[in-house]
Amino acid sequence: MAVVIESSVWEPSPFLHIFIFLSCFVSIFVLPYSSTKPSSVFDLGLSSSFLHFQRNFLFIYSLASVMEGLWSVFGEYELVYYGVSKEQMVLFLCLGYAAALFVGTFLGMLSDLIGRKKVCLVFFILHLFVGIWKKISVHPGIWVANICLSLASSVFSFNFETWVVVEHEKQGHRQDSLSDTFWLMTFFESASLIGSQILTNWLVGINVEKGIASPSNASIFLAILGVIFVTRGWTENSQVEFKDYKTSFFTHIFGDKRIWLLIWAQACLQFSIAVFWILWAPTLVADGREVHLGLIYPCLLGSRMLGSTVFPWLISGPSSIRTEDCLLYAFVVLGFVLSIIAYDYQEIGVLVTLFCLFHACVGLILPSLARLRTMHVPNELRGGMISLSLAPANAAILLFLLQQSIFSWCNACLPGDLRRGYYRKIENAAMMAFAALGLFSAAGCMHLLKRWGKQPYQDSHKL
User: Fold this and answer.
1) What global pTM score does this model have?
2) 229 and 60 in contact (C-beta within 8 Å)?
3) Which of 54, 152, 402, 409 could cross-link with 126 by S-S, CB 3.0 to 4.6 Å?
4) What is the superkingdom listed in this entry's lineage (predicted)?
5) pLDDT tens digit string along 217-268?
6) Which CATH fold would you assign to the domain 54-460?
């Protein structure tokens, strides 16, 4: 008699999605009734010029966020479709992070020098180029597309925030309303990434092989739309002399220990996020477990949306706490979450819960760090400071990926009895442990930042 082995694919309950999005709704719309100061989201006394400015920015930022998410939904499947092996995938990731490290690090400084509008146009042009490249080439150079998308992601990580802060100050809007723009950026980015998943699945349809190129069409359209809106709707920043910028950068960035604390905290956060997105799927499907990853992805981003809505409660709610304290606790929680994931085998439901908690803390941390940057970093140096803070994270990820790539090469070339003797790869748990240690050190940075007090720049730009 044949034995039938039943297998089931784990997927989150639909009530989890409903709970997360209802919690976001309640968190946002209950805030005005318990807030000690008005929020720009509900303050009807704000000028129409500010509301127009904020809505235009959030629209363009959401558009860019959708484009960032389009390539990630079927990213690995697309590489397999073009005949790329796993070893080649690791190599392409190495090229992408190398480009982000050796070129992307200096794009922030370039943005400060020539203006944020021009660098933002570079972001959309890079996406436009990749979309056209994949349409006209039957077997596109994946390494070219990967480098371009990595550089575009580097621009996305600093240029939009820098632009909105500089223009906010230039137009003379209220400083306290800038904090609301920060958490709305995280909220809309997460929502847009979920939207990009829905859009990509709809474009590809049932026949994946025939529809695999459809996201390229959407990317081309959205990139053209972005270029039009940036060209017509954004004002240009005045250019800065390189000599003056260099002197100011060395004085305020390299010469201020408080900013170095912020740089390290941002680097540790970015490293942990990168490690998470590289390892979350392998962690869930370990030991042959079958999981519906496409339904878990919205839960993670929905949790980040929920975490971002907690930010205004902490800074303007009935019991306002200092931003440094908020970040200290959030970094500690993130560190413990990654430690549990790394060293304690869990069932899928527990893992998904920990993943959601991780992203909720990330949603809280992102606007909090942006707020601290506004308090400590001169606006004209903000792009260079943020891109500099991404360099350690990119270097660490590149090191791990190179180590994995070299291990794969040794595994293929050396005789079987010499492989593990000559080279041992770093396990996934060790990578998560490194990320957890970095998060604990980031919590220490927040403690030191609180002890060292305010800078003169902070006093004149108090939120």
Assistant:
1) 0.89
2) yes
3) 152
4) Eukaryota
5) 888 999 999 999 998 877 776 677 888 888 889 888 888 899 999 999 999 9
6) Growth Hormone; Chain: A; (1.20.1250)
